[in-house]
Write a structure and sequence with these properties.
With about 250 residues, the protein is α+β, with helices and mostly antiparallel strands. The protein folds into two domains: about 80 residues, Nucleic acid-binding proteins (OB fold (Dihydrolipoamide Acetyltransferase, E2P)), CATH 2.40.50; about 160 residues, de novo design (two linked rop proteins), CATH 1.20.1440. It has seven helices and eight strands. It has a five-stranded mixed beta barrel with strand order 1-2-3-5-4. The structure holds zinc ion. Zinc ion binds next to strand 7 and helix 4. Zinc ion (ZN) binds next to strand 7 and helix 4.
Amino acid sequence: MKAKIRDQGILFKTIKYRESSLILRVFLKSQGLVSILAKGIRKKPENNLLNTLYTYDFTIYEPQETGLYLLSEFTLLKEYNIFSNLPTWTAAECAAELYTQIIIPLEENTAYYDLLQLYLDYLKKRGDNAILLWWRFLLRIFIKLGIAFPLDSCANCKKKNVQMAAWKKGTGKLICVSCLNEADSPKYYEILSSRASQILHLLPQIGDYLDKIHPDSQSVEQLNHLFSDHYANHFRKPLKLRSLEVLSQFYL
Ligand SMILES: [Zn+2]
């Protein structure tokens, strides 16, 4: 028998497997993203206790030839019961989807796990305008990924604490109003709407403004695009999340 491991984890997804089993995609606090085979669980009442985005204490066996961990037992640690608030739920799913796309070094698993827990707790407590919390979460992930995104310093003149007017398409590099006015080729820049610019400015302290700022469809589209450009500038691929497309639909 392989070694037994006990670890807490957030359930991202369940996939039906053969007649009566499930494969659980779980982000474990110390092991990171793993697949766990839950043999015969669909025949048992325990099946009803498994909910995505809930936190469990898992006891599992190390992978056999299949590469899957094997579930021994689990207990519920934390509910995430906000099914009734779809935008908030979708904002949580964005984070789970993001974690399946980025590469998280083994020694960083716990830090990423804690960040995700914090985010879920905050969404549960303050779910209004969840997309604002999503963007703030994304900024924190950028820092963890080593690609911190400076929101208040102009990429051109390097002035700090200025409100941004536009960004250079495809790069996410933000520039201030005076630099935009002097730009030789304005067509290379995407002009931020005043709402989008305001949100960017407030994003680091967005917790204080959740019920004061209401993102409209234009600012949602622009800021998603901006963050994707910033990501692509470093990783050579756009940030594409299906859940984020769904989340954006709530702001039409
Ligand atoms: Zn400038």
